[in-house]
Design brief:
The protein has about 180 residues and is mainly α. It is about 80% helix and about 0% strand. Helix 4 packs parallel to helix 6 (about 150-175).
Amino acid sequence: MNLPNKLTIARLVLAVPFIYFLENSIEGGLVYRLVALALFAVASITDFFDGYLARKHNLITDFGKVMDPLADKVLVISALVVMVYLRYIPSWMSIVVIFREFLISGIRIVVAAKGEVVAANKLGKYKTTSQMIVIMILILFGKQYPTVFNLNSYLMIIPVILTIWSGIEYINITKHYFLEGN
């Protein structure tokens, strides 16, 4: 297994302690928030480096094409679910992101069954980057809000828009797999 794929697996592993510290950050205070932030930041950085190293050293694999976006999904969805639980963001925002991620994962499975792998495109990378940046801001500065529209919600608007936009683009890129009558 090459280094980029090991970094992808590390991102999956880091999701577990990240979830623990974020979920318990209300009781654990600033220390738990900082640990959650550090874990999420390290996991997010592995997303950059696994892709960079794979491209630079020609280490791109089908495993990486499939598992890299999956690891991103696990990390981001975990954060969003916990943030809904903590009342940092409204549930509809996380539902939009989760719906898109499952839809695109389903499409990836269909495409893979036809013997092809469609890697993430630039818009998908921007979407993931925006999600990770806003999640880090919310971990550090976010607070519970009783209302639907609040500062946290406004921060999440860009990742939600990019999530929808990149999902539509991915569907357009892959629609020929579904229009062939199979």
